[in-house]
Amino acid sequence: MELGRKVGHFFCLLKRKYVWLFFLAPAVAVLISIVVFPLAYSVILSFYDWNIIRAGGWSWAGINNYRTILFQDSYFRSSFKVTLFYLAGTVSVQFGLGLVVALILDQITRKIIGFLRTVLVLPITMTPVVVGIIWRLMYNPDSGMLNYFLSWFGFSPVNWTGMPGTALPSVMMADIWEWTPFVALILLAGLQSLPREPYEAALVDGASSWQTFCYITFPLLSPAMLVALLIRVMDSFKTFDLIFVLTQGGPGMSTEILNYYTYRYGFKFFHLGYASALSWVLLVVVTIICMILIRILQSRGIYAKRT
């Protein structure tokens, strides 16, 4: 009888102390099934040579997939160069325009800033597929709005997404249009959270607007800038929808960034083992670039490391 009471007391304490486990278990199970298991499976798959439309199943490849990617695949190197160009072009322009827009909005009265914020959010709320369709209509060589405006000045129609020289800048323009407001809103939030005391002291000392920006605004805004920079760098590496809708990596490989190259190997050529290895190489590349950016900002004093 005494043993039964002790056992019952133990389970009662267990139920009261660890009842949160029962509520957490469904979420953990879903997370494992849709995130952890696919990630682990892709790691395993990256060491195999597996083409799902080829007879014979899969065979162990070891590190051959990674060796081929890093040392033999010229298409990978070409896609990597396109990715870096795309990343540098889009992120730099988004930051320049976003900072200008944020500085302008910071000087506007609060009565209309709410409306302007709503306008800025509109491109972000659209899915990239919708943005791609809008810009594809604008780029249409026969009836697109851009060629219509060019015809006013006597220029002949341009096949914006069909020529190697204009295809990648055309995709970059659509990306810049969609995500510049995102950068502007993050920087605007950072500007509006800055303390007023340094600005009052600079005004008393007779500092110019440019000096105030260089020595007060820019350093104090660096945490928000770092957040926006890292988010946009990672998102740029993940770009897929715009390229799929506008160019599908063409013409040739002029717009084929690493993410689309991985998709092509996995879902067009069905080399799932090689595509899995490509995805993990892409993850390592993104991680290294983000770490380099953080180090550069810390070394220049733009972003102080928090201890």
List the helices and strands and how they pair.
Layout lengths: L1 H16 L1 H27 L2 E3 L7 E3 L3 H9 L1 H33 L3 H16 L2 H12 L5 H8 L11 H29 L4 H9 L3 H12 L1 H16 L3 H6 L11 H10 L4 H28 L8
Antiparallel strand pairs: 1-2
Keywords:
single chain; 307 residues; mainly alpha; MetI-like fold; 14 helices; 75% helix
Could you explain how this protein is built, in words?
The chain has 307 residues and is mostly helical. It folds into two domains: 2-43, no CATH class; 75-299, MetI-like (MetI-like fold, Orthogonal Bundle). It is built from 14 helices and two strands; from the N terminus they run ααββαααααααααααα. The chain has helices spanning 2-17, 19-45, 64-72, 74-106, 110-125, 128-139, 145-152, 164-192, 197-205, 209-220, 222-237, 241-246, 258-267, 272-299, and strands at 48-50, 58-60. A two-stranded antiparallel sheet has the order 1-2. A hairpin with a 7-residue loop joins β1 (48-50) and β2 (58-60). It is globular. It starts with a helix and ends in an 8-residue tail after the last helix.
